[in-house]
Amino acid sequence: MSVAAGGCQLAGIDIAKSLLYTETGEMGGKDLRSGKFFSGKHRLTQLLRIFSQTVFFCLFLYLLLGTRHAGKDTIGAVERFFHFDPLLGAATFLASRTFFKAFLLGLVTIVVTALFGRYVCGWVCPLGSLHHFTSFLFRRTKGSKPRLQKDNHLGWKYLILVFIVIGSIFRLDLAGFMDPLSFLYRSFTAAVMPAVSMTIGAGTSLFLQVGLPYPGERWARYLQDLAGNTTFRQALFIGLIFLGVILLNGVRPRFWCRFLCPAGALLGLLSRWNLVRLKIDTSRCNGCRLCTLHCQAQATPHPNEKWNRAECMYCYTCASECPHQAISYPPGPAAADSHVVNLSRREVIFTSTLGLATVPLIALTGAERPSEKLIRPPGALPELQFLAKCIKCGECMKVCPTNGLQNAFHEAGFLGIWTPVLVPRIGYCEYYCSLCTQVCPTGAIQELTIEEKLQTRIGMAWIKKHRCLPYALGEPCRVCEQRCPTSPKAIQMVETRFSLPDGTTHALNAPVVDPELCNGCGVCETKCPVVDEPAIYCTSFGESRSEKELSFPEYGK
């Protein structure tokens, strides 16, 4: 009986696989639990790929969990993963017109990809590994069905890459929105890990309340401590985006990698002429197209002449699925007419024009005077340079010991979305801490020593006298003065006379801010006992990074 190819239904494919196994004898293999056929020759290669994905994903988690305050003044190179990403290095260089030397490590990725293909996407990338695993789950739970696809949407990620490059040329770093590492770190920092921590805490509390023994209580508390900060203003928004991207794997396996990833598009361009090619032995192949049906990257392994090596992630799923062992990957240069993603001239011109028209409009959204709430971390570059380098990864927010650094939303315009801002109502800038300056992967926040950080001003405090207890109610309060960390204190208690409602006067010590000493750390706003709307607040006025130096007149002059 001959096996139908191409458009056969899944039931027909299962029958075809059974017949192929019967005809080929020991050419293939069979999983006794699932009945799935696989090529014994490439089974080990697939297991090595899964092992590699697991190791690098665990490395990502190790570095992410290590990005926290552990009671020390310094932290290791927890941001090193980013420096192997050539998209981030190129976009940051073009946007800021400066090169961060740590991104020289991206040459490793470039060389490996140019010589051997997109092994980084298939074997290393932690977001790609997560997509691969969830795609596998969707397939095993019948949440998605494999089917033959055309390549008419594969060009989307290349158009996104064009848009990012045009933005970078105009000094707008848009890579942080879509880069896989930035996306993954941001999602885990602001949404996934806080949600996991809250779930563990709720489970522990439930067991304790009902009086049941909880054998994993010590581990639960340890994991909660590793998760670190758990309050993020945009956790729901960022979490829904992440969940949506994961659920897209139910529509197409590795949907993000196929259609949306600009880093994958860049590596695809670099791998077009790599030295590893796919070869189908025509004497064994019977045209069933199981390889194309189960291809994770939609690289079209069959027919051989249509194989797109720029899209192939070398996961070896096609070779493993082939019951005839007809697929191999010998070394060899690309053919002169090798198949590539078909991007029409009209699409490229339209995307370029859209980028040229949109980029200035994005830049104009930050042209107004900065928001009073735009308090950047210590060591942050001047605003335009900061936005040109910040990739919105969330590393500085993850390491902040007080949870004060949060994702910006409207404070800095569209381009400033998800960049770090200090929100004193949530947490303050710890006086003897400079960890956020040590973990920035692009230099948007310059590394500072503790001594340098103590001399850095990120803003200034202001008193709302109509809400301050001494000024408004004549009640004694000196919390802000007591918690002020500077020496001498930037908040001092000064004797002041107040008029009471009955016409009498009353003398009481009230807080006064010395603008020469205040560094804008926000601890006074965080600890103010007027909880609904603090009677003292901080703004970015007077920050050290401002291109306009500010001086304050001396008192009495």
Gap between N and C termini, in Å?
A: 102 Å
Helix and strand content put the structural class at mainly alpha
Largest beta sheet, briefly? 2 strands, antiparallel
Give the overall silhouette. elongated
Per DSSP, the total helix count is 23
Radius of gyration: 29 Å
Mean pLDDT comes to: 83
β content, as a range?
A: 5-15%
SS elements, strand count: 10
Count of domains: 3
Oligomer: single chain
For the largest sheet, list the strands in their spatial order: 1-2
Q: Estimate the helix proportion, in percent.
A: 40-55%
* Contiguous runs where pLDDT drops below 50 for at least 5 residues: 1-28, 30-35, 549-557
Write the layout of secondary structure elements.
Layout: H1 10-24, E1 29-30, E2 37-38, H2 40-65, H3 86-96, H4 106-116, H5 119-124, H6 126-140, H7 156-169, H8 175-178, H9 180-209, H10 217-227, H11 235-247, H12 255-260, H13 262-270, E3 279-280, H14 290-293, H15 317-321, E4 327-328, H16 345-364, H17 383-389, H18 395-399, E5 405-407, E6 420-422, H19 435-439, H20 450-454, E7 460-463, H21 469-473, H22 479-483, E8 491-499, E9 505-513, H23 523-527, E10 536-539
Antiparallel strand pairs: 1-2, 3-4, 5-6, 7-10, 8-9
